[in-house]
Amino acid sequence: MVISFVPSCRGGFAFFKRIKPMKIIHTEIPGLLIIEPRVFEDSRGYFFESYNQKIFEEENLQFNFVQDNQSKSTYGVIRGLHYQVEPYAQAKLVRVLSGKVFDVSVDIRKGSPTFGQWEGVELSEENKKQILVSKGFAHGFSVLSETAVVFYKCDNFYYPEADRGIIYNDKSLNIDWKVDTSKAIVSEKDLQHPSLVDAENNFFY
């Protein structure tokens, strides 16, 4: 919580109502949340809290982020869909520092009522939204601007031996990446990923 105050006419302080520095929105897929920060703007620019552990704990979101990653990509790039299998699975808190992307998360938890469903959200320098991707999701994004810088926090380290993926154009998922996929720029590694039905996966709901 944030407590704001201003000097009162009596020389003391008048306290305003407690205001959370961010709004946490639950999507239709359990374990996938959108974070909307409260942005304070004035003639100098803006300020906002991009992460607040206390707020997360109040929402029963327990994460110990241990690694920060950052990437820069050009228009039409698709990265993903990526995940690490247990016991090295990662939760991610993703945001965009510059540019705009379409961020996609796919529920791959066996037994989940939303298994195989995906959620997409536009993350941009302007809207300052973030997506919290819990363990048990495959994650990726497409770049909608000339360039985009994506930053994300992870609650586990990168383990190459646990690195897995799903092909971005899996017909069973039918993801709308908001770019022309016939001209998409995709790494050779990502092009080798299997479809969801053939992907190695040890997540359970």
What's the gist of this structure?
With 205 residues, the chain is mainly beta. Helix content is 5%, strand content 40%.
What does this structure look like?
The chain has helices spanning 53-58, 188-191, and strands at 5-7, 13-15, 22-26, 32-37, 40-42, 45-47, 67-74, 78-84, 92-98, 100-107, 118-124, 130-133, 137-143, 147-154, 163-165. It is mostly beta strands and 205 residues long. The protein has a domain at 61-198: Jelly Rolls, CATH 2.60.120. The strands form 4 sheets. The chain has a 6-stranded antiparallel sheet, with no helix packed on it.
Binned, the helix content reads under 10%
Radius of gyration: 19 Å
Identify the CATH homologous superfamily of the domain at 61-198.
Answer: Jelly Rolls
Q: Provide the low-confidence segments as ranges.
A: 1-16
E-strand count: 15
Mean pLDDT: 92
User: Roughly what fraction of the amino acids lie in strands?
Assistant: 35-45%
Strand order of the largest sheet: 3-4-12-9-14-7
CATH topology of the domain at 61-198: Jelly Rolls
| Gap between N and C termini | 31 Å
Can you write the helix and strand succession as a string?
EEEEEEHEEEEEEEEEH
Number of helices: 2
Structural class by helix and strand composition: mainly beta
